[in-house]
From TrEMBL, chain A:
Transmembrane segments: none annotated. InterPro entries: Gliding_Motility_GTPase, Gpn, P-loop_NTPase. This is Signal recognition particle receptor subunit beta. It comes from the Bacteria. Keywords: GTP-binding, Hydrolase, Nucleotide-binding.
From TrEMBL, chain B:
This is Uncharacterized protein. Gene3D superfamilies: Dynein light chain 2a, cytoplasmic. It comes from Salinibacterium amurskyense. SUPFAM superfamilies: Roadblock/LC7 domain.
Length: 187, 138
């Protein structure tokens, strides 16, 4: 059985914990604390260390799902967990202020991971805010990272099927990247 | 002198009552242990309420890390079904960090002692401080 480690990142309130709960076959390990920053995201709790879940795809591929806190003050957790991941699922909530630039900022924070692995963008809460459009995100991504084609999807983190489709796409990208990687030189 | 008043809905790191109580508690901690090299009160979600002796430590970063450590320790206790996590100790060569919750509040005390303090005494002082903080903001 092959194994992959995928990181769920994105701003506070973008749906990372919900997405992992939708996907995971095991009880999700969560580290939630009372959220005192209701101005940034109006929700009761927030992740302060990590979320952890697991899913098996096609009976032969196990994917370990790690979610990081959205707030930048927890960026030490980003570094710790990004180091072991090969794929990045970056969620951006469409109702966030200046969400396009926010996405580019988060992508830049995880540059090392998406340069050596694969990345997919999931736009959440597009039912709450209809703009920006997927095309606008794609245009901004092309301008920011012209050397890499980064897929953008709208997704509802509560919907297991939608999340599974996103995850399958990401895992396929990771595996493709591994296949295309140059073989180590023989000594 | 009257205590400053603040509505209960104000987060602890912005609540003048909690800030005042935190400063008093940490000062009392320092009186009990000169080996206390740094201490902070933080919200469960990693905002610093107050700190003591912060000249060489980034209080905001320490608060975020302490919050993560507390939550991970809680998660381990939960996973192993060993009851409520009471305190966390990080024992290192040049000092030890002790952290525990203020009973009944989403507040954590995290204290760094140098190695002149035994772990037992450090823990005892941290417990006294947690009780004191709970009394002051009750």
């Amino acid at each position: 059985m092959s194994e992959h480690v995928v990181l769920f990142a994105g701003p506070m309130g973008s749906g990372k914990t919900t997405a992992i709960r939708s996907l995971s076959e095991i009880d999700v390990v969560s580290t939630e604390a009372t959220n005192t920053d209701r101005a940034t995201a109006d929700k009761e709790t927030t992740t302060v260390a990590l979320d952890y879940g697991e899913i098996t795809l096609d009976d032969v591929t196990k994917v370990r799902l790690y979610g990081v806190p959205g707030q930048k003050r927890f960026d030490f957790m980003w570094s710790i967990l990004a180091g072991r991941a090969r794929g990045l699922l970056l969620l951006i909530n469409n109702d966030a202020p200046d969400s396009v630039n926010l996405l580019i900022e988060y992508l830049s924070d995880f540059r090392e991971l998406h340069e050596r692995g694969a990345v997919i963008i999931g736009v959440t809460k597009s039912d709450v805010a209809s703009t920006p459009t997927v095309a606008e995100y794609s245009a901004a991504l092309t301008a920011a990272v012209p050397e890499q084609l980064i897929p953008v999807f709208t997704v509802d983190p509560r919907n297991a099927e939608e999340m599974r489709t996103l995850l399958l796409s990401l895992v396929a990208s990771v595996e493709m990247r591994e296949l295309l990687a140059p073989a180590p030189e023989k000594i | 002198m009257n205590q400053p008043l603040a509505p209960a809905t104000v987060p602890s790191h912005l609540n003048p009552v909690h800030i005042d109580a935190g400063n008093r508690t940490l000062a009392e901690m320092q009186d009990l242990a000169s080996s206390l090299t740094f201490a902070a009160m933080l919200t469960d979600d990693g905002f610093e309420i107050v700190h003591l002796n912060g000249a060489h430590t980034d209080g905001g970063r320490f608060a975020s890390m302490s919050s993560s450590v507390q939550a991970l320790s809680d998660a381990v206790a939960h996973e192993l079904k060993i009851g409520t996590n009471e305190y966390v100790i990080i024992a290192s060569e040049l000092g030890h960090v002790i952290q525990l919750r203020v009973q009944g509040h989403p507040i954590v005390i995290a204290a760094l002692f140098d190695t002149h303090e035994t772990l037992g005494k450090g823990l005892s002082i941290a417990r006294i401080a947690a009780r004191r903080m709970a009394e002051l903001i009750a």
